[in-house]
Amino acid sequence: MYKPVTIKDIAVALNLSVSTVSRALRDTYDISRKTKDLVSEYAKKVNYKSNPIAVSLKNGRSYSIGIVVPELANSFFSQAIAGIESIAYERGYNTIITQTHDSAEKELANVSHLTQRSVDGLLISVSSETKDYSLLKRLNEQGLPMVLFDRIIDEIPTFKVTSDNYTGAFNATELLIRSGRKRIAMLANAPQLSITNERMSGYLKALTDHGIAFKPELVKNFGKGNNSDRNISAAIQELMAMKDKPDAIFISSDRISISCIRALRKLNISTDEMMVVGFSNSDVVDLLSPSISYVRQKSFEMGEVAMEMLLKLIESKYPVTEFETRILDTELHQKTS
Hints:
Layout: H1 7-14, H2 18-25, H3 33-45, H4 52-59, E1 64-69, H5 75-90, E2 94-99, H6 104-116, E3 121-124, H7 134-141, E4 146-149, E5 159-163, H8 165-178, E6 184-188, H9 194-209, E7 219-221, H10 229-240, E8 248-251, H11 254-266, E9 275-279, E10 293-297, H12 299-315, E11 325-328, E12 330-333
Parallel strand pairs: 1-2, 1-3, 3-4, 4-5, 5-11, 6-7, 6-8, 8-9, 9-10
Antiparallel strand pairs: 10-12
């Protein structure tokens, strides 16, 4: 029967006290570098692993981080989670990942479950359906370390990290305008989301700067319940049936971008006829046909930044009262043909 190596086993083998071995493994200041190296090399040789339950009981932590995202299948969120985990595991934390499918009810259930699991902190990107933030506000007031990323909200004073959605949308819309397009439709997420409002503002500013009147009938929003391929296809057909139909589409969501391309393909509409620029972090976006230009977010970096921010809250010896909202640049990729 397999028996894991303990600190006591290492102490006996190296003729050291259990206390010395424990402090050497924790890299405390009062142990010499020679002893630390000796213990570290032997521990690695015998495949010693610390007991996470014992460590958590001693430190009053679970060393677990709760992550709440709208959709794991979304390339942006899967890349952000990879960034989170790259920092978490390096610092000795495990992650518990949940998805809401953009449901406020599932978000509430997931957050409640994670707090019952005694996570040390929470990283969350709110669902498109959520309008009541009372639970998150209460948990924040009770002292649960919490960082908001991508889809952020003003109601909670804490660290936040998101993309420069305004500039990304402005650049995308201006690209369409400089290509000679005048009637530019916008397909977007739920209107209450921070990212939707910021991207809408960038879209409107580009129109205004180039003297193009805003046409509200050219804007279509998709939240939970109406963001299926079928609904997006119906919206495209509705736009194409207009007397003055659009000659370009700006898409402010990765998920909607893919569905829009499918709809255009079914209608045999080329990107010469209907130029498209969308927010997308999909690894296959360059292979899409018709091809599109796209705005790419620094999703992996966003995950890293969010996790570093959360660790500041978790590991600070004093209450943190000043918070930062980090805005990460986006990159506009123009199609080559």
